[in-house]
C-alpha cells in the first residue's frame, strides 16, 4: 500500500515535520528528513492498526475491502 507523505523543514527548530494527506491527523517529525520519513512510516502503520471493538450481543461487525 502506498501513501503520499509531505515533509517540510522548520527553520525555527531546525527539524522536519511529516504528514500524510490521505490520513487526517497522521503526522510525525524528526531531526533529519530521513528520520521524519521513518517516523511517518511508523505513524501510518499505527494509524491503520485495527482497534479492538466491544459490541453488544445484538450488534454486528463487518469488514469491507475497498479495491485499490
Question: Which assembly state applies to the chains in this document?
Answer: single chain
The helix count comes to 1
Number of domains: 1
User: How many strand segments?
Assistant: 3
SS-derived structural category: alpha+beta
Which helices and strands occur, and which strands form pairs?
Layout: E1 6-10, E2 15-19, E3 27-30, H1 33-48
Antiparallel strand pairs: 1-2, 2-3
Describe the structure.
The N and C termini lie close together (9 Å). The protein is elongated, with a radius of gyration of 16 Å. The protein has one domain (1-68): Double Stranded RNA Binding Domain (2-Layer Sandwich), CATH 3.30.160.250. Strands 1-2-3 form a three-stranded antiparallel β-sheet, with helices on one face. It is of the alpha+beta class and 68 residues long. Helices cover 24% and strands 21% of the residues.
Give a brief rundown of this model:
With about 70 residues, the protein is of the alpha+beta class.
List key phrases describing it.
three-stranded antiparallel beta sheet; 3 strands; alpha+beta; 68 residues; Double Stranded RNA Binding Domain
Amino acid at each position: 500500500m502506498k501513501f503520499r507523505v509531505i515533509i517540510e523543514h522548520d527553520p525555527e527548530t531546525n527539524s522536519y515535520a511529516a504528514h500524510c494527506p490521505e490520513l487526517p491527523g497522521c503526522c510525525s517529525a524528526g531531526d533529519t528528513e530521513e528520520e521524519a520519513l521513518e517516523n511517518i512510516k511508523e505513524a501510518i502503520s499505527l494509524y491503520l492498526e485495527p482497534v479492538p471493538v466491544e459490541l453488544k450481543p445484538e450488534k454486528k461487525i463487518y469488514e469491507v475491502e475497498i479495491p485499490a
